[in-house]
Every structure is written in structure tokens, then in C-alpha cells.
User: Which sequence fits this backbone?
């Protein structure tokens, strides 16, 4: 009997980066599984439509996947909830929604996979950050506050799980990712945008680092982006 393919999970596997990640992992011989609120067209591998902030929905799905495939070797948390509004026009519900989408979903995901990954001999757990992880811009108070929290939570997970063989990394995506939706939203020259396949390759390379030289935080941006 052939050994099962190693499991790669992407939470927030929408069109763009999520699907590029699944494609990259599949090309490396892994079993790609996406999780997310909305099923994109032409999804790669298996996709489970689920509210990632709801432990009662997420935990059984992941437990079943682990029972079938074994603990994942790569997990990517790639969720986002973008709110752009003046502070006085940003409601408490906006803050709660962004926090649930990005921070609460990481708690749920981490509690579902990290201990099984330890028991399975280790792996890589990557969290997608943004410019707002480092700098809170005007009209981005809800988004930035959640991204700041996400960065701190990822640091805590790295310090707790690194000694057990889990490479926890935070990637700051300092630019606009090139998707049809972002082209429409930002009216930006595509040559100045981040290509999803190129980001996915960087994530894959993170997962290949030897334990003697693990990167915790990596920042990626287009050559034209000021910083």
C-alpha cells in the first residue's frame, strides 16, 4: 500500500493566494485541503465551506481529515476581513467581525492542529500578515487592530511550539495581491502588485527551512513598494 500524501491545510483558501498555495502544495506531492467561507470557482484539491471562527464547525472537519490523512505537515492561516472606514463610522460590530475572522479563527485553527502536529513529529504553521500588522493607517482601525493582535498571537505560538518541532512563521504581505477583485478595488498597475504564485513559492520555501535556521517573520513586497 502506498503511503498517504502529507496533508496541507489552507484556512482562507479563497481565489488568489489561497488557491495558489493549494496548487503549490499539490505540485509538491501533498494532499491539499482548503477551508473557507466561500467556495472559489475551480478550487484545487478538497474544499470545506465553513465558518472558520466557529470551533463547533471547524474542529470536527479537521479531526476527520487527521483521521484519514494523519496530522498536517503544513498549515496556513490566510483569512482576512477588510474594513476601511473613519473611526467614528466604524461600528463595534465591525471590530468584532474583523477580530473573529482573523484572530478567533487562528485560535480555533491552532487548537485543532498544533497538538496533533506535535504528536505527528512536527511541521510548519504559517500566518499571513499585512502592512497593517506593523502600522495602523487612517481609516484602518478595525483591520489594523486585528492584524496587530494576530501578529502577537503568532509570536506566542512560535515561542510555545518551536521547541516541539513546529515552525511557526508570520509573513507580512506589504502590498496589494494581484487578483481580479483587488484590481477592481485599487485600480493599481498589475506590475506593481504581488503575484499569488510568487507568494506561495515563498511560503513553500519557509516550510523547507532546516530547524537550525528557521525564519519567524518574513516581509514580502513588490520592488516598487516604498517601505
Assistant:
Amino acid at each position: 500500500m502506498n503511503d498517504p500524501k502529507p496533508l496541507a491545510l489552507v484556512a482562507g483558501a479563497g481565489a488568489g493566494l489561497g488557491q495558489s498555495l493549494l496548487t503549490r502544495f499539490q505540485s509538491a506531492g501533498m494532499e491539499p485541503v482548503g477551508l473557507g467561507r466561500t467556495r472559489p470557482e475551480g478550487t484545487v484539491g478538497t474544499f470545506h465551506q465553513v465558518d472558520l471562527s466557529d470551533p463547533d464547525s471547524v474542529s470536527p472537519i479537521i479531526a476527520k481529515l487527521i483521521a484519514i490523512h494523519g496530522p498536517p505537515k503544513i498549515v496556513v492561516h490566510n483569512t482576512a476581513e477588510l474594513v476601511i472606514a473613519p473611526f467614528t463610522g466604524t461600528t463595534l460590530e465591525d471590530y468584532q467581525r474583523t477580530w473573529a475572522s482573523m484572530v478567533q479563527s487562528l485560535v480555533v485553527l491552532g487548537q485543532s492542529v498544533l497538538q496533533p502536529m506535535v504528536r505527528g513529529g512536527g511541521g510548519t504553521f504559517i500566518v499571513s500578515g499585512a502592512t497593517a500588522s506593523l502600522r495602523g493607517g487612517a481609516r484602518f482601525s478595525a483591520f489594523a487592530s486585528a492584524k496587530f493582535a494576530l501578529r502577537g498571537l503568532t509570536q506566542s505560538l512560535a515561542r510555545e511550539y518551536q521547541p516541539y518541532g513546529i515552525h511557526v512563521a508570520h509573513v507580512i504581505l506589504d502590498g496589494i495581491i494581484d487578483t481580479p477583485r483587488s484590481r477592481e478595488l485599487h485600480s493599481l498597475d498589475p506590475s506593481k502588485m504581488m503575484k499569488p504564485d510568487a507568494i506561495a513559492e515563498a511560503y513553500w520555501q519557509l516550510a523547507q527551512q532546516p530547524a537550525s535556521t528557521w525564519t519567524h517573520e518574513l516581509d514580502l513586497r513588490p520592488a516598487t513598494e516604498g517601505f
